[in-house]
Input
Amino acid sequence: MKRRDFITLLGGMTAWPLAARAQQAERTRRVAMLTSLAAEDAEARFGNAALVQELQQRGWTVGRNLRIDYRFGAGKSDDIRKHAAELAALAPDVIVATGSPAVAALRQVARAVPIVFVSVADPVGAGFVESLARPGDNVTGFLLFEYSLAGKWPTLLKEIAPNVARAAVLRDSDIAAGAGQLGAIQSAASLLGMELRPVGVRDAGEIERSLASFANGSNGGLIVTGSAGSFVHSELIIMLAAKYRLPAIYFNRLHVTNGGLISYGPDLVDQYRPAAGYVDRILRGEKPADLPVQAPTKYELVINLKTAKALGIDLPPTLLARADEVIE
Output
């Protein structure tokens, strides 16, 4: 063999491992996203966009080294279970799940796939994780909020509408967080002398009938707790609150930007950014069991001034001064 050919061959052999490593580093990883919400829901749209943007900043680009498969359950249990099975069959590297119904469905069919959740209020009570500090198994993520937050809603409702003596509480009794939120609300409402009527949110007909009946009484208000159903039926709930002139407090600002009166809770869309950080860490080799479940560090008070005026409510200046955002 000529010396020049030998050097060329040797150089090629040296370069081959480098090229192979580069090719391996750029191999496409697969992320699945299952949400209990509908595709058109604001949280789903903005949250998914925030997650993709954050992943891109961490070096993951759709079409280059990342593929994302989306499924939307729209609050329908059968669809959520069907989509969970579809995504599990794709054998993704990580699944991002929004809401307790999505996590519960995935736990049945994807016990070996890492799962990062957002918007789950009680992952320990639901059996998704062993503890917040040490999740164990294949699931970790970000809390919707702590139950103590729900106890503030009756107080804020009473502050914004002092005449409220009765409140319909819209909640999903089929999820662990439904009972937890209701319990915190009941504790606070009893101190205020406020009567409560629980109303399910999984069916539009039930919401309409229950609120129509509730509105027959006087001095009524509305408390909308955190659940996928509250998002799926948000337009209906906001419309009925306006129709029956019920002062209403919501768990999320997106309801208020769409015409609701007041909200107090975390920025749910903002949870998708740290969730992308967990996805990145898992794709790079870390295990969900080693990533603690995190709670929100900031809660925001948002008030819709236009809706207050339509209801004839004079907002206390002290409440307006405390608001993080006032929508004119």
